[in-house]
């Protein structure tokens, strides 16, 4: 039996990941949010009718449009946290589309259908998907994230890494050892870039916050709701800082605590949450007095962060401490590059200091290369690089190491004998 792989999205880019196996099993179905309100989201290729969907994790670029294909009644599999995050994000996406006047790709009935049909799978549990047996492995990226292993009836093993992190964080343990496979589909987000040692990065981060507070300013820490908010709260608690916390990350944190088995230390997360003060919307203006505020959105394209910055953007004693990658065209990108951002057609010039700290939940260059090398040392044959803007360079590096590697384009299809 041959295996076919069709790449529907996420090739040469970060966003809208989707891979179709044998026209039957869909691995992820994500969206790529627009860089600003002027640009609509982009989606994977459509016109597919898979009987099975397996979601690697609950980030928009991997699960964002799964509800769109609930009308064909596929069987959906994911970890329990990923199931809830997918529905949570879908509801938020629907709300944003309605507020912005965009036509949503799905409705509340599709989300309900997803919740009813999605089957929960724990790590290492085997489950049947047509002519394949599947297993999920802890990917160390966000709570509930998984790498997906498929094994065909004639023994061909396909490993889809999803987003993976081979380094411990305060929130999560590193990814588990990767299983043997014949085919590997790997993320490439940080190919060519290694992360700073986490201990040093944390110290620089908290030192900068203390400096800001000591000067009487406000420290605004924009964070992604899923994973980053919780990680940053744990860092701040460990270093004796007492933040306010605002935005969607609060609801996500409460959900995470319900699944302690998917966390490195659920008690430490609870303590970090107890150490923070949750902000009610009506109190936002009152707390802007020499405060440390952790808030969504991580790229400043929405959320309470824009309220706070609208009030203090011209305060040179205050600071924005970005905690993740900023996509070109987003407010976070423009804050870093041009000291400005836009809120509801109002352009804000920033007199605040803007800094960026790479608290990434992705493997860096060294770990990505080590993962591919290990795959080959275990007898793997074919590697496909996706989910990154340097996938062709990654494949070229692999070719130099005598590894059969390809950087596919969206729409490309391959057959594995």
Describe what you observe in this structure:
This protein is of the alpha/beta class and 417 residues long. The protein has 2 domains: 3-192 and 361-416, Metallo-beta-lactamase, Chain A (4-Layer Sandwich), CATH 3.60.15; 198-356, Rossmann fold. It is built from 11 helices and 22 strands. The strands form 4 sheets. A 7-stranded mixed beta sheet has the order 6-5-4-3-2-1-22. Strands 7-8-9-10-11-20-21 form a 7-stranded mixed beta sheet, covered by helices on one side. α2 (80-100) runs antiparallel to α3 and α5 crosses α7 (266-275).
Keywords:
Metallo-beta-lactamase, Chain A; Rossmann fold; 7-stranded mixed β-sheet; 2 domains; 29% helix; alpha/beta; 417 residues; 11 helices; single chain
Brief summary of the model shown:
This protein is an alpha/beta fold. The chain folds into 2 domains: 3-192 and 361-416, Ribonuclease Z/Hydroxyacylglutathione hydrolase-like (Metallo-beta-lactamase, Chain A); 198-356, Rossmann fold. It contains 11 helices and 22 strands.
| Basic shape | globular
CATH topology-level name of the largest domain: Metallo-beta-lactamase, Chain A
What's the number of domains? Answer: 2
Cα end-to-end separation: 7 Å
CATH top level label of the largest domain? Alpha Beta
Q: What name goes with the CATH superfamily of the largest domain?
A: Ribonuclease Z/Hydroxyacylglutathione hydrolase-like
* Rg from alpha-carbon coordinates: 21 Å
Helix content: 25-40%
Instruction: Please report the total strand number as a whole number.
Output: 22
Strand order of the biggest β-sheet: 6-5-4-3-2-1-22
Strand fraction equals: 15-25%
Total of helices: 11
Which ranges are low-confidence, i.e. pLDDT below 50, for 5 or more consecutive residues?
Answer: none
Largest sheet: 7 strands, mixed
Q: Class by helix and strand content?
A: alpha/beta
Mean of pLDDT: 96
């Amino acid at each position: 039996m041959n295996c076919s792989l069709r790449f529907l999205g996420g090739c040469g880019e970060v966003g809208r990941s989707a891979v179709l196996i044998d026209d039957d099993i869909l691995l992820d179905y994500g969206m790529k949010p627009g860089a600003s309100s002027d640009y609509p989201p982009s989606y994977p290729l459509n016109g597919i009718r898979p009987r099975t969907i397996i979601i690697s994790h609950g980030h928009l670029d991997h699960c964002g449009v799964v509800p769109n294909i609930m009308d064909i009644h596929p069987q959906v599999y994911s970890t329990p946290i990923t199931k809830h995050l997918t529905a949570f994000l879908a509801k938020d996406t629907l709300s944003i589309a309605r507020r912005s006047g965009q036509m949503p790709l799905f409705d509340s009935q599709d989300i309900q259908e997803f919740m009813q049909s999605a089957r929960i799978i724990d790590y290492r549990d085997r489950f049947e998907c047509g002519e394949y047996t599947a297993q999920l492995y802890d990917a160390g990226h966000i709570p509930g994230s998984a790498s997906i292993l498929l094994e065909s009836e004639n023994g061909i093993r396909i490993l889809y890494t999803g987003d993976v992190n081979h380094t411990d964080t305060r929130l999560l343990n590193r990814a588990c050892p990767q299983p043997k496979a014949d085919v590997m589909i790997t993320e490439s987000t940080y190919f060519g870039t290694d992360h700073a040692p986490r201990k040093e990065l944390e110290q620089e981060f908290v030192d900068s916050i203390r400096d800001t507070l000591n000067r009487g300013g406000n420290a605004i820490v924009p964070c992604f709701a899923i994973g980053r908010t919780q990680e940053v709260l744990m860092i701040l608690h460990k270093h004796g800082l007492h933040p306010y916390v605002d935005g969607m990350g609060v609801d996500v944190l409460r959900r995470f605590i319900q699944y302690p088995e998917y966390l490195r230390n659920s008690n430490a997360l609870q303590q970090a949450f107890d150490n923070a003060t949750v902000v009610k919307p009506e109190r936002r203006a009152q707390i802007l007095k020499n405060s440390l505020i952790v808030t969504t959105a991580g790229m400043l394209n929405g959320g309470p962060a824009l309220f706070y910055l609208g009030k203090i953007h011209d305060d040179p004693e205050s600071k924005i401490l970005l905690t993740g990658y900023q996509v070109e065209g987003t407010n976070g990108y423009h804050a870093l590059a041009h000291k400005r951002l836009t809120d509801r057609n109002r352009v804000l010039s920033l007199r605040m200091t803007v800094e960026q700290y790479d608290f990434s939940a992705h493997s860096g260059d060294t770990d990505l290369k080590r993962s591919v090398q290990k795959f080959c040392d275990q007898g793997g044959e074919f590697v496909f690089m996706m989910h990154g803007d340097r996938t062709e360079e990654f494949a070229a590096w692999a070719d130099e190491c005598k590894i059969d590697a390809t950087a596919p384009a969206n729409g490309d299809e391959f057959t594995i004998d």
